[in-house]
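REVIEWER CHECKLIST
Item 1: Sequence provided? yes
Item 2: Single chain? yes
Item 3: Sequence as submitted:
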Amino acid sequence: MGAKSLDVMSFREKSTLRTFANYNFAISPATAWYLTDLGEFRGKQELYIRQSPQRLKALREHALIESAVSSNRIEGVTVEPSRVRDVLVAPKPLFRDRDEEEVRGYRDALTWIHQDAQRISISNETIQRLHAMTRGRIWDSGLYKEKDGDIIERYPDGSERIRFRTVSAKQTPAAMNQLIADWQACLEERWIPPLIALAAFNLDFLCIHPFRDGNGRVSRLLWLLQSYQLGIEVGRYISLERLVEQNKDRYYETLEQSSQGWHEGKHDPWPYVNYVLSILKAAYREFVERVGETSEPRGSKTQLVLEVIGKMSGTFSLADLERACPGVSRDMIRRVLNTQKGQTVDCIGRGPGALWQKR
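Item 4: Structure as written out by the authors:
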């Protein structure tokens, strides 16, 4: 990759998200299948979550610990197995070293996201706070880098190579401002399906590399936060970080593939985009296996349809309800509508295309 630095105008024109703004792309069949599968999982999410409160509580607690341990371990920050519960569960742990402090900080950042995701803005303040939480009391905790720093790959024999030249320290604040603005514009103007935008944001963040150290951990926290804000809740029960660690070679491979040519706007984002989507799909598949897809509580589908109707505004059709309840048959939705007709909803017109409205 060339050594030329990225200027702000180049970032506006050539970052992954900005490339999508021009609608100059084609979604591959593999990406389309991932989006379809994730849409189906998301549609059934509420059904899964209702199934076993006690089992879900155990999954949440386990995922919190796994995520903190795995995300840090990817970066070489570790805690002795015998110390994990003391560090991550105790209300006020006594740390033996910086690694323990950073792992606990990641756990605290996860807790913040789990509790307040919908109220946390995607902003420089949030990103810097997440960094500060995960880096502890180190001198540049929560601060964007002050010196240029490339991504270096080191080999067991002591040799090394520059794998990627990041955005310069001087240009980092402007690049981050633009990335955050592009994220908001992308969602509002619908440049690309939101989950692709999430992966593109993650790729651009890692290519900017705004911090001296700790970028990978912050990127995974942002991945989780943005997932929640897009309605993808699986990371609450299945550790995305563990799945990334288990597929670490593929993570680095696709990141390298998609970052080549990034500065020139000639990179191919799809290997990394598909990797992110594959991790989300793997998490959902594991979630279904653990919770059990077929053990739905009696009446749960009826309740789901009623909840969706309650959230509708203006007029809506049978097809609208089908899209919002992908795990429920058309006949079931029709039966629920008929039981509510004249009570909570009114039918406008006749036939398959008839519209409905709440009373």
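Item 5: Key structural point noted by reviewer: The chain has two domains: 8-291, 300-358.
Item 6: Recommendation: ____
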